[in-house]
């Protein structure tokens, strides 16, 4: 099985495209969004530009698996280093504040020998600037090895006083979600420090009732589409609910958060509620890391694309850098 986020065994393909209002940008003018789960390493500069144009001002990139298993510790190390280094720089070149969560994903926890080595590496990255949680961790196939490393990382989160971003399994979701929460409680985690991701209508009530944060991934071709998200917010209210795209290397939509906000506007959800589920709740949850300062993205970020990261630039030969006027002034 291929656990790209865009796959859910019980999900029935809905009518694609038609759900997305063509003129959605007209409904969200001036609104600001925070996507708390998106894998930018897999996305293009066009995506960054479109996200900035749609009002996304900040994002969280969870560490996850890359579509095929890594074969050694060095590739994990380079990947984590890129999340706090090059990818953060790339994001800044489009005016988007980039945060990440660091963790060993459930899929690769099943290579136990390598996973043990990764566990020793994690503390070297968990305490770095801009790391807002341990994630995404949890269950995939719900194996004994996954449980072992999930528990070990819950302990690391407690030790580091960081929020936890839980990936719930796409198969046996209800059971996997309940089990993930029970184990987190068993380890003494405050549910207010735990963000349970990839919820659906079957899991949301229990997650909220137990005091956890409930994140929802908007998949472009499955039934947890925008309309369903509107209904969830209508039914449960906006408290402790957040929307994300989980866009990665699979079929996914990096504009899922602003598009969902547009649909909520059209369906009459209040502006306050929309702001909570597409911006503020994610900030409140992950700011418990002490690593998010809203002032960093409260006003448009100055962009100077002539900047370099370790001597490397996003520009290709002959391209003119974008330099915001005020950034020229301080040069
Ligand atoms: Zn993910």
Automatic annotation (TrEMBL):
Alphabetical UniProt keywords: Hydrolase
Pfam family, one: TatD_DNase
Record keyword Hydrolase present: yes
Membrane-spanning parts: none
Gene Ontology molecular function: hydrolase activity, acting on ester bonds
Superkingdom of source: Bacteria
Location of region: Disordered: 312-331
Name assigned to this protein: TatD family hydrolase
């Amino acid at each position: 099985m291929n656990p790209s986020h865009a796959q859910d065994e019980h999900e029935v393909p809905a009518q694609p495209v038609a759900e997305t209002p063509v003129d959605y940008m007209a409904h969200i003018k001036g609104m600001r969004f925070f996507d708390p789960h998106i894998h930018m390493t897999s996305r293009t500069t066009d995506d960054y530009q479109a996200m900035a144009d749609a009002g996304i001002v900040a994002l969280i990139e969870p560490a996850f698996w890359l579509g095929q298993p890594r074969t050694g510790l060095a590739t994990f190390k380079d990947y984590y280093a890129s999340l706090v280094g090059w990818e953060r720089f790339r994001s800044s070149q489009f005016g988007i504040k980039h945060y990440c969560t660091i963790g060993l994903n459930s899929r690769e926890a099943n290579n136990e020998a390598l996973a043990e080595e990764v566990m020793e590496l994690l503390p070297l990255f968990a305490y770095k600037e801009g790391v807002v949680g341990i994630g995404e961790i949890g269950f995939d196939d719900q194996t004994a090895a996954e449980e072992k490393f999930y528990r070990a990382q819950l302990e690391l989160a407690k030790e580091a006083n960081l929020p936890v971003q839980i990936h719930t399994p796409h198969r046996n979701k209800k059971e996997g979600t309940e089990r993930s929460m029970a184990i987190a409680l068993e380890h003494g985690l405050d549910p207010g420090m735990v963000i349970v991701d990839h919820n659906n209508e079957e899991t949301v009530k229990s997650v909220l009732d137990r005091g956890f944060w409930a994140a929802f991934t908007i998949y472009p071709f499955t039934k947890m589409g925008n309309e369903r998200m509107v209904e969830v917010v209508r039914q449960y209210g906006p408290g402790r609910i957040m929307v994300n795209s989980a866009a990665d290397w699979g079929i996914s939509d990096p504009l899922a958060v602003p598009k969902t906000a547009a649909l909520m506007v059209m369906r009459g959800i209040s502006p306050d509620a929309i702001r909570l589920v597409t911006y503020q709740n994610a900030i409140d949850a992950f700011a418990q890391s002490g690593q998010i300062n809203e002032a960093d993205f409260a006003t448009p970020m100055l962009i100077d694309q002539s900047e370099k990261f370790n001597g490397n630039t996003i520009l290709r030969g002959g391209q003119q850098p974008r330099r915001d006027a005020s950034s020229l002034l301080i040069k």
